[in-house]
Every structure is written in structure tokens, then in C-alpha cells.
Design a protein that fits this description.
Layout (H helix, E strand, L loop, with lengths): L1 H6 L8 H17 L17 H17 L3 H9 L10 H12 L4 H13 L9 H17 L6 H9 L7 H9 L5 H17 L39 H21 L20 H11 L5 E7 L5 E4 L6 E4 L6 E3 L6 E5 L3 E3 L5 E3 L2 E7 L3
Parallel strand pairs: 1-8
Antiparallel strand pairs: 1-4, 2-3, 5-8, 6-7
Helix pairs in contact: 3-5, 4-5, 6-7
């Protein structure tokens, strides 16, 4: 009885979105029970052993107990064979895969449309959960033969988050070494700060309200690829081709524009003075006393910090829910990047920040 009770948590809700996670968990569960081979059995008739029959019966019963929707129930119920008239686990498993892991062109396009129409509209939804959903769709499309690169995924993420994430988006857009994990981390960090101040309240993200829309499907043919079910503006083949062309053009332009002369600032070959790192470093030092900076503060406390250092005209007002923090000089900052982002204050006045970076702030 205790075995069945613990098993009941592995249930399938009868949706394509839920099948990937459920099937992985079910395989792991049956593997733990020593029954995984019953899902892809190849021997039959006289080749079946008593152990095969026992494993099939147990695996089939677990599948039957796990399905909660009518469609999946009927699929498992009808999965019988001459060798197993009471229920064939292998036949049931393959039938479930055919139903919930379709690979026809129309299903591929449906999933593609779902991916590109997915947006994070609700501030109360954890962005990390939303990105995980996108990664699952990316993986499923890859299984169907349509690859969405990580760069395409990151671009989609940064263009489909609420305006409250704009400062983080600007910073990540300039980061040439960003990864999916770093994008997740920065957006989640911003969300945690908003949550800490009560700006957002965590909610169930099972369906991510607003992330996907149900719309009437276009019944004509695509003017780009000729296939039925989508318009040229939504054609994944076209979007993929345009993305590849942009990458090729960018690579080609970089090769054509590569400077082979000597820098007038540091004397090294391969870059101009305007691109010289040492020159930029010197310029930063010269501007340090006047530069206005936006900070992504690495916060060490849960409370707002207000402090004033004697002899230096620098007042700290740390607000963990604010979109950005301001600093008068570059002293102590790191991971600096150029920016021209406007910052608006409560009195509606604006300043243009010249740098964005990180700064470790401590309070006693």
C-alpha cells in the first residue's frame, strides 16, 4: 500500500506540455523498480519468460494508475495483444508516445508558433520558470528536427519581458559572453529584489497566464515555404533562414573590417586607438570624478541602506526594489560597460548615465 501511495504523485494530466516531464519521471520510476525493459520489449510468444510476464503486468498497472485524462485512459485500456490480453505495457507506452509526442509538420508549426508567441506578461511570475518552459519547447522542437539556437532563445527572452526588467535587459544585451544560465540568473535576481520589497507576489506558474494564446489557425498556404497552416510572417523556415543570414553577414563584416595596422596609443598591432583597451582604461580614470553611474548592486542585506562618508560628497540611498542605483564615481566598481541610459528621479528630472557596472555594498 505504501508503494502505491508514493507512486500516485507521478500522474499524467493529458497535455502535450506535461507529457515530456511525466514520461521522463515514469521511465525513472520503472527503472528504479526494475521494470523499465517492459516498455520496449521485443520478444514475444514462446520467447517470453515468466519474468517478462510479471514485469509487463506490473508496468502496465503503473501506467494505468498514472493517467488521469479520458484520452490516455482509453489508449492504455485498448493496449492489448495476443500475449497480453489483459494489458500490454510496451504497446501502451508506444501508443502514448504517438499521441502526445506527434512529429507531423502541422504539430511542429503549432509548437513553433507557441514558442514565438510566449511572453512574460505577469510580474508575479518567476522569470526562471518561464525560461524553463521555453527551454522545454526548444528541446522538443530539436527532437522534431527544427533547431532553435541558444542565441535565438536569449533574444526572444530579452524582447519579451516586462519593462520593469529594462535595466537588466540593457546590461545583458551588451554582454557578448552571456549564456542562458546567466540570463536566468540576472532576471531572477531582479525578480527577487522586487519580491523582497513587495512589488511582486509569487504565484503558481503552471500555465503562465498570458504566456500562450489560443488563436484561430490560418488555413491557407505559406507564401515562403508553401506548406499549409501558417503565414509567411510566422514561417519558422523563413525565420531560421533570416537568422542564419544575419549571423553570416555579421561574421563576414567582422572579417572584412578587421584592422591590421598598429595602434597609435599602445603601439600594438590589430586594433585602432579608438578601440584600445588601455586608452579606454585611461579615459575611465580621467572621467571617474564626474561620471554618473548606474549600479547593479550586489546586495548584502535585506534592508535599505543609507550612509554618508565624512569628507566625500557621496550620499548612498540603497533601495533593493529600485530599477537602478546611482553612484557619483567609478571607485570600487567592476564589470563596467558603456551606456547612455536615461535615469528619471522622483522629481521628474533626468540624468544620462555613462556607465553601468557592479559594486559591493556593505552595511554595519
Amino acid at each position: 500500500m505504501s508503494e502505491i501511495t508514493s507512486f500516485r504523485t507521478i500522474t499524467f494530466d493529458g497535455t502535450e506540455d506535461g507529457f515530456l516531464m511525466w514520461s521522463s519521471k515514469m521511465e525513472a520510476f520503472l527503472e528504479e523498480k526494475g521494470l523499465r525493459e517492459a516498455l520496449d520489449r521485443t520478444n514475444e510468444g514462446n520467447d517470453l519468460t515468466e519474468e517478462d510476464k510479471t514485469k509487463n503486468k506490473k508496468a502496465y498497472n503503473y501506467l494505468m494508475l498514472s493517467v488521469n485524462d479520458k484520452i490516455s485512459y482509453k489508449i492504455v485500456k485498448k493496449a492489448t495483444s495476443t500475449d497480453f490480453p489483459q494489458g500490454d505495457a510496451t504497446k501502451a507506452w508506444k501508443a502514448l508516445q504517438r499521441r502526445w509526442e506527434p512529429k507531423e509538420e502541422i504539430d511542429k508549426q503549432n509548437l513553433t508558433d507557441k514558442f514565438f508567441s510566449s511572453t512574460l506578461k505577469d510580474l508575479n511570475v518567476n522569470p526562471e520558470d518561464w525560461i524553463t518552459d521555453l527551454e522545454e519547447m526548444q528541446e522538443r522542437l530539436d527532437d522534431m528536427g527544427e533547431k532553435i539556437s541558444d542565441s535565438m532563445l536569449m533574444s526572444h527572452i530579452l524582447h519579451n519581458v516586462p519593462v520593469e526588467y529594462q535595466v537588466v535587459v540593457d546590461m545583458l544585451s551588451r554582454d557578448k559572453t552571456k549564456t542562458i544560465e546567466s540570463v536566468k540568473k540576472e532576471l531572477k535576481s531582479k525578480w527577487d529584489r522586487m519580491k523582497k520589497t513587495g512589488t511582486v507576489t509569487e504565484k503558481d506558474t503552471a500555465l503562465h497566464a498570458g504566456s500562450t494564446r489560443t488563436r484561430k489557425r490560418f488555413s491557407g498556404n505559406c507564401n515562403y515555404c508553401g506548406k499549409q497552416g501558417h503565414k509567411a510572417s510566422e514561417c519558422f523556415t523563413k525565420l531560421k533562414a533570416e537568422g542564419n543570414n544575419k549571423e553570416k553577414d555579421k561574421s563576414s563584416n567582422n572579417e572584412k573590417r578587421r584592422f591590421t595596422g598598429r595602434c597609435r596609443s599602445c603601439g600594438k598591432i590589430g586594433h585602432k586607438a579608438v578601440d584600445c583597451y588601455k586608452q579606454k582604461e585611461q579615459t575611465q580614470k580621467e572621467e571617474a570624478n564626474t561620471a554618473e553611474t548606474i549600479l547593479s548592486v550586489v546586495e548584502q542585506t535585506e534592508t535599505a541602506a543609507i550612509g554618508h562618508e565624512s569628507g566625500i560628497e557621496e550620499l548612498w540611498i540603497g533601495d533593493t526594489g529600485a530599477s537602478a542605483h546611482m553612484k557619483r564615481t567609478l571607485d570600487g566598481m567592476y564589470d563596467l560597460q558603456d551606456t547612455g541610459h536615461p535615469v528619471r528621479f522622483g522629481n521628474k528630472e533626468e540624468l544620462i548615465a555613462s556607465k553601468i557596472g557592479k559594486y559591493d555594498l556593505y552595511t554595519e
